[in-house]
Design a protein that fits this description.
With 323 residues, the chain is α+β, with helices and mostly antiparallel strands. The chain has helices spanning 12-20, 34-40, 74-79, 81-86, 88-95, 100-105, 108-113, 163-170, 188-191, 267-273, 280-290, 302-319; strands at 5-7, 25-28, 47-50, 59-61, 65-69, 174-179, 182-187, 210-217, 224-230, 241-248, 251-257, 264-265. The chain is globular and about 55 Å long. The structure holds flavin-adenine dinucleotide (FAD) and iron/sulfur cluster.
């Protein structure tokens, strides 16, 4: 691991100026993703700015929904009574991630900003456009079981790893950020990006912007929601594919994980199913339409059938009543 300076700022503004004006500085929260990357030489900041001492660890029930401080631990968020009772999809997504020990360490903001689990990204001896722009993509034509099938580019076929982000996508959440130019709100749908020809940028954040909170609007009365994750082991494994869903009267919301470089909000599928019966045949037809532009390789083509079956199971289950 390379040497670095370590700072513990006393205020949000101090934290932002320490990172915003130093291109080689990085925030650190729980460290459960970043420290691995420091050890592997994938991340090489010369200054770490520890945000865990900042007052960003509250969960507030507001008139509009929920406000989750950036430092709230994944385990505390999953167990919060309002999350368990009103946002089952979020609680389930969090509990499907990592292990109890890691969920105690991981924070809301860190979870959203964790980096891809593409095996080549973590291996500094291989070409990877995300780690080293312009070096090539070892995953294309390489080990392709985990690759994305939607929204890929010739530069990168990595998937986004966060379960929580997929749940927040279907909840129409936003993140509040503080940067050198002040405060702004970013809809979650605009936070993570497709790789295009610059996969080194995972998000739309400007260097130095500090996530301070995640806001989640209240769900409509009578809404039911859930999260389903298909994976290689019953726990401690990232998603092969995952489905976050909300059903509220005529409205159907679906987001997919494990299929793209960002949580994939299935808007075509949602439009097709709006107001219609949530039966197997229309759901499968809507999935086929949503997947019409999918690009697969030999190793990851199973994802199409898997995401279709998972979506049908989740939506018919939700249509059968509260879960
Ligand atoms: C073995 C293992 C299994 C896992 N399995 C899963 C899984 O199944 N599903 C899943 O979703 N996750 C999984 N994870 C990932 C884990 O959830 C993340 O490592 C964790 O959520 C990151 O949070 P952190 O607070 O530790 O972030 P850190 O490692 O501290 O930071 C991660 C990134 O976020 C940035 N950052 C942190 N806070 C802020 C802020 N407030 N503003 C701006 N930038 C910030 C950091 O600069 C860094 O780039 C797994 C991790 C491990 C090690
Ligand atoms: S898929 Fe993306 S992260 Fe993986 S090797 Fe290719 S460029 Fe790197």
């Amino acid at each position: 691991m390379r040497p670095f300076d370590y700072e513990r700022p006393g205020t949000l503004d101090e934290a932002v100026s320490l990172v915003a004006f130093d291109p080689d500085a990085s925030y650190i929260a729980g460290g459960s993703n970043l420290v691995d990357h420091l050890k592997l030489g994938v991340a090489t900041p010369t200054r770490l700015v520890d945000v865990r001492g900042l007052p960003l660890a509250d969960i507030e029930e507001t008139a509009d929904g929920l406000r989750i401080g950036a430092n709230v631990r994944n385990s505390d968020l999953a167990a919060h009574p309002a999350v368990r009772s009103q946002y089952a999809v979020l609680s389930r997504a969090l509990l499907s991630g990592a292990s109890a020990q890691i969920r105690h360490q991981a924070t809301a903001a860190g979870n959203l900003l964790q980096r891809t689990r593409c095996v080549y990204f973590a291996d500094a001896t291989t070409p990877c456009n995300k780690r080293e722009p312009g070096s090539g993509c070892s995953a294309i034509g390489g080990y392709d079981r985990y690759n994305a099938v939607l929204g890929t580019s010739e530069s990168c076929v990595a998937t986004h790893p966060s379960d929580m982000a997929v749940a927040l996508a279907v909840l129409d959440a936003s993140v509040e950020v503080l940067g050198a130019d002040g405060v702004r709100t970013i809809p979650l749908a605009d936070l993570h990006r497709l790789p295009g020809d610059s996969p080194e940028h995972d998000t739309s954040l400007v260097h130095g912007e500090l996530i301070t909170a995640v806001t989640v609007p209240a769900l409509p009365d009578g809404a039911v929601s859930t999260y389903y994750k298909a994976r290689d082991r019953a726990s401690y494994a990232f998603a092969l594919v995952s489905v976050a869903a909300v059903v509220a009267g005529d409205e159907v919301r679906v987001a997919w994980g494990g299929v793209a470089h960002q949580p994939w909000r299935a808007t075509r599928l949602e439009a097709a199913l709006h107001g219609g019966p949530l039966d197997e045949d229309p759901i499968r037809a809507a999935c086929a339409d949503e997947l019409a532009d999918a690009v697969t390789s030999e190793g990851n083509s199973y994802k199409l059938a898997m995401i279709t079956g998972a979506t049908a199971m989740v939506l018919t289950g939700l249509a059968g009543g509260p879960r």
